[in-house]
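Q: I have two molecules that I believe assemble together. Could you output structure tokens for the complex as a whole instead of separate predictions?
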Amino acid sequence: MASGTKKNGPKGGKGGVDAVKAARSSVVSKKGAPWGLIAGITAIALLAGGVFTYAFVKINAAKEFTASDDNKDPSENINGVLRIKYTSGQHVEATQRVAYDQSPPFGGPHDGVWADCSGVVYPSAVRNENMVHALEHGSVWIAYNPDKVQGEQLDKLKTRVDGKPYMVMSPYPGLDKPISLQSWGHQLKVDSADDERVDQFIKSLRTNSYLTPEPGGRCDSNQTGFDPSNPPPFVAEKPGADAIPMDGKGSSPAASEGAMIPTTAVSAPGSAPASAPAPASATSVPSSQ
Amino acid sequence: MTEQPEDSELPSTQGARRSGLVYAIAALVVLLVGAAAGMLITLAAVGGDDEHPGPDSIDVGFSQDMRVHHLQAITMAGLARDRSDDAEVRQLAFDIESTQLDQSGQFSGWLTAWGQPTLAPTDQPHMRWMATAHSHGGGAGVDLMPGMATSEELAKLRGLQGKEFNVYFLQLMLRHHQGGLEMASYAADHARADYVRNLARKIQEGQRAETGLLTRMLSDRGGSPLPN
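A: Yes, here they are, computed for all two components at once.
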């Protein structure tokens, strides 16, 4: 980068000294010293070096959090992201609960109906089973502890969500950190809305076509029975023994959606025999892709 | 000093050596300037190349912003298709929803092929790619694009029924269609890729024609356009 000025050294070891000598002596002699030229060239070299470095850094920064074939999971460049591989496409009914392994959950069996994630800021906590389905469609969910995040901090989070497609936000009572971001298989907990990793997480993972189980899955909830003005509420109590475990035993493979993810393991071994064939189709609607 | 004799002995050699050095340095500086310029060009087209537009290009900006704009129209139209009791409104809603869903998929496909995010970033204003968008504060961009409904307006629409729903849906969709025209027209004139310009032109013409239909349907139902 600084090659222009650096070359003065090695190659100019002799020449440089000579030039200085010459310049010095020429003050005395008739020839004018090229100080102006030297200063000009040095200035140009420094400027060019600066521009080069600036552009180089900017290019790397721009690509760092943009998913590509070489950078399928840009969140690997972010400190503190928890990654877990989950099986997609396992559906439960509106009356069932899932014994999620994480809080807030970010993958696993979920309700056939997704929570509306078209830039919706929910004022109250929403049922986990619906939120997890929204993650499967590529959205990023910002959960916050309503006791710890208020006022200006809350507004900063809202501006990242309100009206922004594939963004959704809700309070999460009892959250162990002020803020927790979720995308399918990824979670990042932070203390402040000013943390630069918030935007990095969103850039890296929202509708990431390499990591989203169902790219193109919709966020709006028309005809699904989900009402964003009156969503199914969050349940604080721990799920009982009848809850669907994380391996999906007792859940239904999503028939209509399973067809779109042929290679990933859609159904867990031994899933579905317990539930009748009807319920899955009762809650799951064909998602228009 | 000691260099005095050397200097006076070989003035011409000294001069030649010196100018040789100056040329060498000048050549290196030229190379460095060239490298910096090259890097700037790369910066202008990050993730792109001769074939692919970069993140600050009109093609990418338009595709990302118009996709976000379309997604809201799809949501509103889906709502009308879902719950309107008026066959003509439902039919128009289906037309808008399916057309814009397909177009939204085209935007997303292009953006993926260009190596760019398929949605406008959440931490930056919209429409910055419209450098001469004088009516919207120049290159600063906007938080809410023209014609976009706020979350409150969408919630209000969800809460309405019957004729009230139909009128408010038509009002919001009319404003939405009109709001998208400026972006579409700018991209139709200035985007680099011919297929982007073509779709932008189709959106501009199609939505302009449909605003006539929306206005007529609105007045048939006793409504009038929302105030600007």
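A: One point stands out. Chain B touches chain A through 61 residues (CB under 8 Å).
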